[in-house]
Amino acid sequence: MNRSSEIILSEKAVENNIRFLRKKLGPQVKISSVVKANAYGHGIEQIVPLFEKYGIDHFSVFDFTEAERVCQSLTGDCNIMIMGWIPDDRMDNVLKKGFEFVVFSLERLNLALKVARALNLKARIHLEVETGMNRSGLNGKELNQAIETIINNREHFEVRGFCTHLAGPESISNHLRIQKQLKKFHKMLATLEEHGIYPTYRHVANSAGAFAYPKTRMDLVRIGIMQYGFWPSTETFIQYINSKADKTDPLDRIMSWHSKVMAVKEIKTGEFIGYGITYQAQTDMRTALIPVGYSVGFSRSLSNRGRVLIHGQRCRVIGVVNMNMIIADITHLEGVKICDDVVIIGKQGQQEIKVTAFSDISDQLNYEVLAHLSPRIYRRVV
Ligand SMILES: *Cc1c(COP(=O)(O)O)cnc(C)c1O
Predict the structure, then answer these.
(1) For the whole model, what pTM was predicted?
(2) In the CATH hierarchy, which fold is given to the domain comprising 255-353?
(3) How far is the CA of 82 from the centre of ligand 1 (A)?
(4) Whose CA is closest to atom 14 on ligand 1?
(5) Is the pLDDT of residue 57 over 70?
(6) What topology does CATH give the domain 11-241?
(7) d(CA 128, CA 101)
(8) Which residues surround ligand 1 with Cβ inside 6 Å?
(9) Which of 176, 178, 171, 174 has the alpha carbon at shortest distance from 237?
């Protein structure tokens, strides 16, 4: 390995997770694979071809640039939905490439119409309605205006979807709010259909929605975190596993993150280790230097708290996390040599460092830890 660290992606785990999701969601429900934030840190260019190989044929991204990257990574048709940012001057490219996109404001609808007219093309839109999250989406009055615009310009719109986003289905404490959102969604959908507009896909669910509230599956689910092998929250996992005889997690983590020992050092009692005085050796110690730091996503908040695996054993991160390096305590290990494998996330022997352990210690969501993994880390599929 000539890179200071690498992320290894397991094809077998991809196959397992997609098979599980397919089986649970049923044949009627389309999966749109959410690959925003560089496929949750896994790498768009590596993950998208794998997902495609195992049958995924619809992808969701946040912005136009990601849509282009996904499209270039696919061998088949590009069925891609842009959920968020599109610069005004890229709308023509969006239409030419046939990307689908979410319309959450009348401004975007009107821009799409203007460009569609100029190019004599159809905009493939998903109308997003505001149902209670109060983040994005058309309110009732705006929906009526949108309906009017669409009816008057039928030749320039293909209504691919009608959608909303749920405000926290991963926690039971949001139950009432979710129910209210669903009620509102169906009411707004009825308004749309009364005007003779029938969207191809009605969709509201992310991973947690699809599992905690099966009726939110509708025609399509936008699955992000679960396809990578993580549950949206402990609650969602427990809720699922409670009703099952087999208590093993049906999902497999796709990703592991490896580095190497760069140097080994002996430290005398009383010496401070690393920058400042955050760690003082209480005995004679041995340390390993590892070329991974906050510049590639190993959060500084793991200073004196993180763990890595060396020789199948847990080793504490001591001192502060540097930009490109961490120091681990290997006093309890014999014979650690330069270039020995270090696991930052993943399994080694009987031990495992999970992203959740990582995120709990550093007070981040698992989503956040993943999204912070630098795109500069080399990624490869096994
Ligand atoms: C990120 C996102 C998803 C996927 O959420 P997961 O919890 O990762 O499944 C679905 N829908 C929207 C609008 C999103 O932004």
Answers:
(1) 0.96
(2) Lyase, Ornithine Decarboxylase; Chain A, domain 1 (2.40.37)
(3) 12
(4) 206
(5) yes
(6) TIM Barrel (3.20.20)
(7) 10
(8) 34, 36, 83, 165, 206-208, 222-225, 232
(9) 171
